[in-house]
Design brief:
Two copies of one chain form a homodimer. Chain A is mainly α and about 220 residues long. Chain A contains six helices and no strands.
Chain lengths: ~220, ~220
Amino acid sequence: MQRHFDLELDKLKKQLLEMSKLVEKAISASLEALEKLDAVLAENVVRSDRAIDELENALDERCLDLLALQQPMAGDLRFIAMSMKISTDLERMADLAVDIAQRVMELAGKPLLKPLVDIPKLAELAKRMTAEALLAFVEKDADAAAGIIMMDREADRLRNLIQKELLEDFMAKDSSVISRAMPLLLIARHLERICDHATNIAEDVIYMVRADIVKHHPERLNPE
Amino acid sequence: MQRHFDLELDKLKKQLLEMSKLVEKAISASLEALEKLDAVLAENVVRSDRAIDELENALDERCLDLLALQQPMAGDLRFIAMSMKISTDLERMADLAVDIAQRVMELAGKPLLKPLVDIPKLAELAKRMTAEALLAFVEKDADAAAGIIMMDREADRLRNLIQKELLEDFMAKDSSVISRAMPLLLIARHLERICDHATNIAEDVIYMVRADIVKHHPERLNPE
């Protein structure tokens, strides 16, 4: 029985990692659409969002079945409940990739305002934080999770840099470029929100690991 | 035993409604701060966010205890699992009220760009959608939930109206007003995201009610 349950938990972890791979792919594809100003690529991102929505539902159903049939205790219960929260985060991250793709559609057909430097850096960071947050969760690695929370400061810094440049060096100097600058500014905000979701997941990991420790090893809380 | 469980479920519902009241209060307070350009009021919104974070944790713990101790079945299990997802939505909605308050801090000290007309309308809609979504959830009312999803179109319309006016009538004509227009534009986006969360909750309600019907009354799915 326990062995069967462990196999079911493994399937759940694989499904979560698969979902995070799809989110990373959606971020990559929306950035490629931006770099090429390619409306068709952007539309593909919008279309592929359906698969992630369906994966969220499938994952939630798996969790509900595990809760109903296996009646797990303590640590496993918390892990399954957190998985349902994280599936929601992943689905929202995919929605933000769709938001980016929609901004690309607004930009398509106009020349790019400036060469993209910091936006690709922020997109790389968003993908890395997503991948590492999910890994930290399935491996219950609180140290890795703490590292991800630190990365969010770099995401904020990059977002502020992009926003400041677009506002002060472009929009404030020449209001005719606003329609080409605004979508870039919003893309930076969408990317930074993806990083926020990864940070939320990392915070959940720390909360989960700490609660496990409290429930199972209360003596570790005051290690004097 | 069942009676005790029903009392516990009632407590959970009350806690969710209490949390949504705090979110509505945060939206009201951030809008009042905007209308008065009052940085102190805005700071209060930022500070009160802590209480909502703590309520999310308390609510999650209550759900985990209910799952562990009562081992609920089918409909109740789904309701408790959804409650944990909705507590996350509510916490994110409160974060968006904090985002609005931070935009107000950027605006404080400068004269308001224009009289506020559509932003207060959008804020009212956000509060109404929040209140009705939570009520639809605790009452498992799919019809009310469907009504909330319809309201989201009005939220999108208001957001687009605000954005278009600020971009075309103000920023494009006089780039010196950008620092007073941008925060208003972002506030409209924050409010619209709050409406999106309410819509997510409404979609969850419909999904939950439908799944209950499928599990308990499969014959109702094909009522020919």
